[in-house]
Amino acid sequence: MHVNTIRHTRARRQQGLTLLESLVAIVVLALGVLGMLGVQMRTLAETQTGVRRAQAVRLIEDLSERIKSNPRGLDQLEDYVADWDATVAAATDCTSAACTPAQLAAWDLKAWRDSVAETLPLGQAATFASSDTDEDGARRLLGVMVGWRVNERETDADSTDYTKHFSVGTTTQTCPQGLICHLVYIQP
After folding, report:
1. Nearest to 163 by CA among 42, 82, 49
2. How far is Cα 159 from Cα 153, in angstroms, rounded to an integer?
3. 144 pairs with which residues across the strands?
4. Smallest Cα–Cα separation from 83: which of 129, 117, 123?
5. 144: enclosing H helix or E strand
6. Hey, which end of the chain has fewer CB within 10 Å, N or C?
């Protein structure tokens, strides 16, 4: 009988070890799954940033095409200049009425900025004339900066590359707080 008791006690201990091993395995598995979820969330945030950047590039290309389609657009880049918080008002609807090149520039700029606001989350844009001029004194470049809301996961120090100021020549533009910006210079 004594031998039976020892075997029964060993069997109970073995059952307890199996349960403990199972719990440890479940904890390890849960930590692995949480780690994979963290990597997946970071990848999703980076993908969203890439998509937003591609949308910004397309929007800037749209403005460039609008300027090129304006008969005097390349000669009058100053008509396309607007700061971040500037209210652009187009007095004439150029889709149904004949417009002067200056009116068309105002119409294009308003329509384009509305498109930026609709396409990107908290989308904003600033356009500015660069300090570079050609031999006739005309501006050579139009700077276009498009900004959108920073992803919640991009609040670390790595994301500051796209949220600080940009400088080319003597022209400096600052990205507004809480936005990621993309800057392109349009050359006539």
Report:
1. 49
2. 10
3. 127, 184
4. 129
5. strand 142-149
6. N
Tell me: the pLDDT tens digits for 87-142?
877 777 887 878 888 888 889 999 999 999 999 999 999 999 877 666 665 567 88
170: Cα within 13 Å, side-chain hemisphere: 3
Write out 114-141 in H/E/C secondary structure: HHHHHHCCCCEEEEEECCCECCCCCECC
Q: Which residue has the tokens 């200049």?
A: 81
| Residues found in the chain | 188
Q: What is the DSSP string of 8-22?
A: HHHHHHHHHHHHHHH
Cβ atoms of residues 49 and 100 within 8 Å: no
What is the rounded average pLDDT of the residues 62-78? 86
Per-residue burial over 92-106, b if 16 or more Cβ lie within 10 Å, else e, is: eebeeeebeeebbbb
CB 121 within 8 A of CB 96: no
When mean pLDDT is compared over 20-24, 56-60, 162-166, the highest value belongs to 56-60
